[in-house]
Design a protein that fits this description.
It is a single chain. With 385 residues, the chain is an alpha/beta fold. It has eleven helices and 16 strands. α6 links the parallel β10 and β11. The longest helix is centred in the C-terminal third of the chain and has 18 residues.
Length: 385
């Protein structure tokens, strides 16, 4: 894959010079993406030290802000990288330290797009965690922030939005004439799982996929299909007579599917917010005599802290939680023995390189083919042993 990426950079089919505008909150991810791009470019014989475009969003003492782009971007193919979920970024407001909300990050994105002043060749936005994405449908009189934000970005001249594991990818229907790519790091997740637990067997009698709810069926069906194993699911029984925090509370998780006894279980979801539902499923599966339980969420934000997962791991309920580096993770989370980070920066770098050269991304990234190759390697290694 490195040779393929270098080959892309060696062509003369770049749409325009590449510029990476990494916003506050996404510096770590942006640095890793750029490192891959620079390595591939140098491997193709190009003299390049950076693709980064300096930027900032300073604030006045009143709290108002402005976006600044610190070098020329005329004719550039710009990729803005933003993490709307990074609440660790702060700013001073009337002498108090304010933590940035998703609204603040989104406003800064618009400020920097405005600062480009229409001089860029093309504007692309890499927003792994979609702004407003959890409010994906309207019940009663409610806002549809994500759909409106996409329309707003399109109106500002954005050509492509790249996201990961959108809560509901049908939001792209709001902007049918704008590029919208919803990527799934399925290969990266399985690669990390197998490296972290090399003794896992994906034989049908020993491994099983379980969907945490009906909304996550498609992503879990994909894992079950490529691995050739059975799948079960939970459905959430809710109390529709009450509304708590804007939602009908979950009364119980009911399991549907074949027997999980004696099997390793893999559960995939888009987000672990409080984590209560994931832990409820894990305890439920342990009562059904599941062997080991591994959970994955693209965005592990753990709004209720880590103590409940610490206890579940210590009690042998859950063996590992996998999460991507697509949004902010606290140092406490990174240092937990039960947490395994999935690095998705290389995947994004492939995508950026392909878009910049107006190439089909399938030529560089084919999750199904790569997963098949991964499974074949594991089978060969097991046969040698």
């Amino acid at each position: 894959m490195v040779d393929q990426a270098s080959e892309v950079f060696s062509t003369d089919h770049r749409s325009a010079p590449l510029g990476i505008v990494t916003m506050d909150g996404a510096k770590e991810l942006g640095r890793k993406i750029e490192e891959h791009l620079i390595r591939w470019a140098k491997g193709a014989g190009r003299e390049v030290e950076t693709f980064s475009i300096g930027n900032s969003c300073p604030r006045f003492s009143s709290g108002d802000a402005k976006g600044l782009i610190e070098s020329t971007i005329r004719g550039y193919d710009l990729f803005f990288i933003v993490d709307v979920g990074n609440y660790s970024v702060t700013y001073n407001y009337f002498g108090k330290e304010n933590h940035m909300s998703p609204d603040d990050h989104y406003q800064d994105l618009k400020r920097l797009i405005q600062a480009a002043s229409g001089k860029a060749y093309r504007i692309n936005v890499i927003m792994p965690l979609m702004y407003g994405g959890r409010q994906h449908r309207r019940n009663y009189r409610e806002s549809l922030d994500c759909a409106f934000a996409l329309q707003e970005l399109q109106g500002m001249g954005v050509s492509n939005v790249v996201t990961f594991d959108a809560h509901d990818p049908r939001v792209q229907n709001a902007v049918p004439l704008m590029g919208f790519d919803n990527l799934m790091p399925s290969y990266q997740v399985l690669k990390k799982l197998f490296r972290s637990f090399p003794d896992i067997s994906t034989e049908r009698g020993e491994f099983m996929i379980v969907s945490p709810d009906e909304g996550a069926l498609s992503r879990n069906m994909y894992y079950a299909s490529v691995l050739g194993v059975d799948m079960g699911m939970f459905y959430k029984r809710r109390d529709y007579s009450k509304i708590v925090n804007g939602r009908n509370p979950i009364v119980a998780h009911e399991y549907l599917g074949s027997d999980v006894a004696g099997k390793d279980i893999f559960i995939s979801d888009d987000i672990i917010s409080s984590g209560d539902s994931m832990l409820d499923l894990a305890y439920n599966l342990k009562k059904k005599k599941a062997r080991r339980i591994f959970a994955y969420a693209t965005y592990g934000i753990f709004t209720n802290g880590l103590e409940a997962f610490d206890k579940a791991h210590a009690d042998g309920i859950i063996d590992g939680v996998f999460g991507s580096n697509l949004t902010y993770r606290t140092e406490e989370l990174k240092n937990r023995s039960w947490f395994y980070e999935v690095d998705v920066s290389k995947y994004i770098a492939y995508f950026v390189a392909a878009l910049n050269h107006d190439m089909s991304i399938s030529k560089l990234v084919d999750p199904h083919a790569k997963i098949d190759a991964l499974l074949e390697r594991r089978h060969s290694e097991a046969t040698k042993d």
